[in-house]
Amino acid sequence: MFSGPSVFSGLDPSLIERAATFIRSGRLVAFPTETVYGLGANALDAEAVARIYSVKGRPPSSPLIVHVASIEMAESLAAEWPPLADRLAQKFWPGPLTLVVKKQAAIPAIVTANLATVGLRMPAHPIALALIQAAGVPLAAPSANRFTELSPTTADHVRRSLASSSSSEVGLILDGGPCQVGIESTVLSIVGPGAVLLRPGGISRSELESVAGPVAAAQEVQAGPHLAPGMHPRHYSPRTSLYLPENGNVPERGHGIYLQYRCPAHRADVAIRQMPLSAVEYAAALYDALHQADEENYDWIAVDLPPDGAEWEAVRDRLKRAATK
Ligand code: TXA
Ligand code: MG
Fold first, then answer.
1. Residues 169 and 298 in one domain
2. Which segments of 93-232 does DSSP mark as H helices, in order?
């Protein structure tokens, strides 16, 4: 039914070795992380990284996150590794936090969209860590979806999104089950005098502040064109039009699905999916709910926006970006 790269499951050493061989030979491997699935290439090989941009259809102005298997590996890729980087990495790695620091010359310009900085992250998934270790190189990896589409949180989402790619580009897809966190990592810049939140994500601002002190939001600082390129609108979108109605006022027409938080829908003839009430569980369920709604070909998706509390910052950010303008 689907063409494209094959999916293999589990943490089998021979499979990891095969995937690592693809990485070393300049091909791409899709792999699970605790946030979303990534599409990885050897971060030190500019040609391999160029393949990521072409498979994703991603503009070259959007820098990639470099995934490492240890703090030492991160340090070796940074021109400066400030004490704050160390404190944050000790506390939150492996985990959903990307630290933007000054980069080493060894990282090709294509990885960072010509920026002098690099986003580094040590993922908390055994398959991701095993792959980086076996390949022996850091992995540049964006989410394993086509540009502006929804991020994948299962191997099946990846397979559907990359079905048109050739296996000479994407060697294989490693299946590590559904992603536990379910939304992308928090991106935090620590190159300036204070820490700046470039993208809310799996680690909340209050968790960061317990280690880093006050964290400014990117909107509060001068936002240059490349400060946080992933923050442009209509990222993280399903194909189906998505609305954020107030008080359950879903669209009057069409056959839609309502992702309910607490407020019931005003129309009785819509499909209802009750979303989890806790922010952590909601995040883990969100992309799969949107992928499923896309598969079911509704005319629209309406989402009952969760409350404006600190723990909901990342979920609300993704929903607002996904909403139809
Ligand atoms: O959870 C995640 O972060 C996932 C998994 C695969 O690790 N990756 C991911 O990658 O979401 P991507 O490419 O979809 O998003 C990368 C984000 C973008 O918002 C990008 O602008 C930001 O990280 N970023 C990367 N390097 C940066 C840099 N040097 N300066 C500023 N922002 C950077
Ligand atoms: Mg992405």
1. no
2. 126-135, 155-161, 205-212
Q: How far away, in angstroms, is 308 Cα from ligand 1 center?
A: 24
> 0.90 cut: is pTM over it?
yes
Q: Which H or E run contains 204?
A: none
Q: Which ligand is nearest to the CA of 39?
A: 1
Is the CB of residue 32 below 6 angstroms from any atom belonging to ligand 1?
Answer: no
Q: Is 5 left (phi over 0), alpha (psi -120 to 50) or beta?
A: beta
pLDDT in tens, 103-158: 999 999 999 999 999 999 999 999 999 999 999 999 999 999 998 789 999 999 99
Question: Cβ of 230: how many Cβ atoms within 10 Å?
Answer: 17
Distance 162 CA to ligand 1 centre (A): 19
For residue 74, is it within any domain? yes
Number of domains making up the chain:
2
Q: Whole-angstrom Cα distance, residue 142 to residue 139?
A: 10
Ligand 1 neighbourhood includes 143 CB (under 6 angstroms): yes
Position 277 in a domain: yes
Residue from 35, 53, 98 whose mutation best tests the ligand 1 pocket (most atoms within 8 A of CB): 98
